[in-house]
Specification:
about 140 residues, 4 helices, about 80% helix, mainly alpha
Length: about 140
């Protein structure tokens, strides 16, 4: 018969600290980003507020799913046996996730800017055709 020695680890504690932090970060960034993107969306959709808000809500849901899904994919912690290792592991995971979240926010902003630029170019083309019907 072999005896199994159980050692106490902080892995469960790490998960219980990590999850609320990354979910809260995702919600805060999402609310900030999509509250301020309403103006872009209205501009992109040529003042059609209903479709702009609906699209903005869909982007927000996608942002939640993508980021919380990623946070859950990287949740794995290896044997954390001391409080010091717990702090280091959480710092690395939360710091890495924060960097990822920042990059996702910048990517969304770039998409909004690109959409706005496309909408402005389309509006200019329509105005040129309207002013010069021979074109």
């Amino acid at each position: 018969m072999t005896a199994t020695v159980l050692t106490a680890t902080y892995n469960f504690s790490a998960c219980m600290i990590y999850l609320p932090i990354v979910i809260t970060l995702t919600i805060l960034v999402s609310q900030f980003l999509f509250k301020n993107s309403k103006a872009f969306m209205i501009d992109i959709f040529h003042q059609k507020k209903d479709i702009a808000m609906a699209t903005n809500s869909l982007f927000k849901i996608g942002f939640y799913l993508l980021n919380i899904g990623f946070a859950l994919c990287i949740i794995e912690f290896f044997q954390i046996e001391t409080v010091e290792r717990l702090v280091v592991a959480l710092s690395k995971k939360i710091g890495g996730f924060s960097i990822y979240l920042g990059l996702m926010m910048i990517l969304n902003l770039l998409l909004f800017l690109k959409g706005r630029k496309h909408a402005l170019n389309k509006e200019k083309q329509i105005n040129i055709k309207y002013e010069n019907p021979d074109i």
